[in-house]
Amino acid sequence: MQEPLLGAEGPDYDTFPEKPPPSPGDRARVGALQNKRVFLATFAAVLGNFSFGYALVYTSPVIPALEHSLDPDLHLTKSQASWFGSVFTLGAAAGGLSAMILNDLLGRKLSIMFSAVPSAAGYALMAGAHGLWMLLLGRTLTGFAGGLTAACIPVYVSEIAPPGVRGALGATPQLMAVFGSLSLYALGLLLPWRWLAVAGEAPVLVMILLLSFMPNSPRFLLSRGRDEEALRALAWLRGTDTDVHWEFEQIQDNVRRQSSRVSWAEARAPHVCRPIAVALLMRLLQQLTGITPILVYLQSIFDSTAVLLPPKDDAAIVGAVRLLSVLIAALTMDLAGRKVLLFVSAAIMFAANLTLGLYIHFGPRPLSPNSTAGLESESWGNLAQPLAAPAGYLTLVPLLATMFFIMGYAMGWGPITWLLMSEVLPLRARGVASGLCVLASWLTAFVLTKSFLPVVSAFGLQVPFFFFAAICLVSLVFTGCCVPETKGRSLEQIESFFRTGRRSFLR
pTM here? Predict the structure, then answer.
């Protein structure tokens, strides 16, 4: 089957020439690649993703600590721990819902800055918590901030980045989220749980400070009729010595053709509903691979299996592998293309989930009669109950399988789903549709995270991993049939492709 957006020759691809008509804009794009300001603006924005990644896995070292807390107001039962782990995703869903309004009302930059308020308040509540309600509220607020930034930052980055580096810059939100998670795992080896929350305030403050000096998205400014400000923003991003008029005219023409918001009737048009459907299904499949429950309960999962290394060390090692994998994706996304990495990513995740499920089902078990001393007991990660004696190198399987799963996710389905969401969504519906995608994504994550423990208790820890493996197979088929290749294409070219209606992605 012929792949879309691959620059094939023929009249069906007239809207996607390999090279744009010669113009001064060619020199503008070359200058953009060498300009450091767009990288500075991207860094300032993706600090919000750092905080998001940090907050997402905050429960990994904290849940085991609170389960052994001597304070009766903070001691967590299994049910309470499941709420503490999953309520973040409800907050993230609410943040995604709010992004549907704020993304177009305040703009991308101000929406990102606004997320600092619930984020800082949430960390403060968890740092000073004296009861379960403070922990849950703090976790919800940090989740709200994470959902808001998850919807706004990819859109902001994609709209300020030139096509030649949009793939690399589009991977930076996931990269920073991974770096935030790794920082949490590393600090969890050194700091008590309250100080982990205090440390989470630092990137939020730095983000606010840096973003105060960054411009808003030129596309957003043009959509609000602020043409002069948009031109200044684009000139600042590309460099004051660069001729940006060719690029500015292309963006201006696209914005003028879509000056009004999309109506519900228009949303049913193929050129609008197809890219939204692709982005939405990608976000759902991304969550159904199991990434959120695995990250939230990572240390507890290691506690419940026979592993060679201490669970805290295993969690930190997995975090480091995740960071390295996202770096690889960022460097290769504009070379190998989006679809190749998605295929490789889904295949690796399938093999890893299947291996982990088989190991848990057939491999060594704890000596305790409870079969798994971690996730299936009333108190997880009870290290006082010894595990079975390590069976040589076999007990490295959980660590290696989890490392490969995280590596596969981080090099494909992690960063590319966010990038493609910001690339394929039409400008008129980008703010609302990105919020809808994040809302659906985090509602799915909540269902998975909340049901993870009951499923483990009822059927065993291996069952969720077999389910995640099956979803990875579905992801392979979906990538081949529905996902377009957008490497090297401008946002205007991608939108023009969907508007032609020459191919149906969702037959």
Answer: 0.68
